[in-house]
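Exercise 7.
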Amino acid sequence: MNSVRLFAFLIGAGARNRVARQIARLKNPRYAVALVVGLAYFGYIFFGMGNGNGDDEAPRAGRAALEGIAPFVIAMFATWWWLRGGYESALAFSPAEVHFLFPAPLTRRSLIQFKLLRSQLAVVMSAVLLTVIVREGALPWYLRIVSFWAMLSALHFHQIVASLIRSNAAQQGSSGFYRTAIPIVIVGLAFIGLVWSVTAGLPDIRSAEGVADALRRLTSVLDRPVPRIALLPFQLVVAPVFAADLSSWLRAMPGAIVVLALHYVWVIRTEAAFEEGAARAGVKRAERIAAIRAGKAFSLAQSRTRRGQLLRFKLRPTGPPARAIVWKNMLAFVGQLRPLTLVILLVGIGAVFAVVVLSAGSWRSGVDAMALMGVIVAGMVTMFGPLGFRHDLRRDLEKVELLRTYPLSSHSLVAAELAATTITLTVVQFGCLAVTLLLLPFTSIPATQLPGILAIGAMAVVVLPAINALGIAIQNALALMFPGWLKIGADAPGGIEHMGQNILTILGTVFLLVVAMIGPLLIGAVVGGAMAPVLGVWAGVPMASFTWLALCGEVALLVWWLGGVYERLDPVEAGLLR
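Solution. The predicted structure, written as tokens, is:
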């Protein structure tokens, strides 16, 4: 049996077994009802709200603008992959795969091909989901699936290569850097040229008369020679997605296939210590499982979070047991922060400030941009933070045997698990809002508008912690109710190949959060309307206070209910024990 047939058998058997397990879970009424409700909701969202008319002028203009800026947006994500890395685990093997495949007469190239081939299951699924979500265009559905597949596969390979090259250069010092110098230099020059071109075009973009005009001007800036060269690979992979007809698709698809093939060869030939890293990842996973079974998971996690950690917290030897859970989860989050992350953040902020000041010719414009950025980041954390910050039951349920040995009631454990992530989100949001508040006196905002802005800020400070707690409670409720359908553990599905699944998760979470907030917002609106004649703009503070009380009531009910769900959870039936 050759390697291709072997890999096809392993991947096919694994996929069949996984599907069979998921179908078997439908015997549980909880999973069956959730499936029906989920299909009905997403069916309404994707098929029941009408379809855009591709012949209208506005949709055509919007598609043209999106096609122009999409390569630039993807390039920004690619830049983050090169700076941050952290995706080398895409080629990591499980302990079982290490023991089964590594002693076999297989080459390094064959092992990488196995991992890339297996990742195509997630890529194809995401392509199908994106085809359902993005229904604009005149192409048949099967051609749009192929277009999304080519784009996602190329970006997936690029994400892997960027992480491998960065890891190789960082871990092997100067020798590793010299071996990977050519791609690093090329990517660096492309990024510098792109930033320089966009900076030069900022004055023209700032003079736009609306969002549509600004996008059109940005598209014209990106159409200049230097940006076109820097963005050429990304332009080629997105071109089939935006093809207006079959002839355009046939002209665009070869370029995307060429970029995909070049990335495949790049991954195969990347000189990184892949086998050792993959085996080491498997060993770490085995160590974690052994530590959990031996009751030493805490000491193992503590030893790993000490290296390169920005902050450290000490836990008092006495106190409520729930405090230890909060401390553990916050330590796990802080342990992921590295000095390099802070450096990249500060350099990025400084670069944005410098670009705005140079383009506008006024330092006050830079201050305005920084103040606005604080509000935008706080809003993004509110929306997406509950999905990305997973230091709660979504991470700890894989250690359910250990959790049940702790001297805590189920309700106290659930509350402590939610508290750490809620505190983390709130601290990040308050930090962003504090930056905006400190910059307000130096902005160009008229003094007459400051009271209203401060009132809005006071409302945010009051209500954001409760919104965070509600969002985290919803995420943990899903993890407790459907552990067999969700990713439980430290590693969330964050690669580009999981884009479709992540979009569905975001849509479902936003829907649940909006529904849960309707009642508290109505209560707050009634109070705010009654107090407005007396307090004016500051009526928002009592409005936010009553909204906060109602949200806290919902969170308390969720914690009480989730405590019972956790108490009745069967780890074997839920598939948490492996």
